[in-house]
Amino acid sequence: MEDVIYHTLGMNRAGRNEYFRKYIREDFPFEEFGKLTRDNFWKIVDKEGLPLKKVQKNCWLMENRKDIRWR
Fold first, then answer.
1. Which of 4, 25, 35, 39 is most enclosed, with most CB atoms within 10 A?
2. Which of these, 13, 50, 48, lies nearest to 61 by C-alpha position?
3. pLDDT tens readout for residues 2-35
């Protein structure tokens, strides 16, 4: 699975889903995978914070996500 993830970095959702159908299985559970991926990402952000370049700290994400511990 790690190789598949590596090869889909930078792809949009449609491209990633097509790649998964071809290299994993046709009925891959995209919605469940997406939810688990997002949940895991936010657990990491809650625990470790989200590093940003100094120039990015005024972006809309920071203004709208006051609950994130920014590093």
1. 4
2. 50
3. 787 888 889 998 999 999 999 999 999 989 988 9
9, containing H or E segment: none
pTM score? 0.57
Q: What does the block give as tokens for 68?
A: 């994130």
Per the CB < 8 A criterion, the answer to whether 28 and 21 are in contact is yes
Is residue 43 within a helix (H) or strand (E), and if so which, with residue range? helix 30-48
Amino acid code (one letter) for 18 = E
Q: Which residues is 70 bridged to in the sheet? A: 50
> Counting every residue, how long is the chain?
71
Please tell me the distance from the alpha carbon of residue 22 to that of residue 56, in angstroms, as a whole number: 37
Q: What residue has token string 């590596």?
A: 6
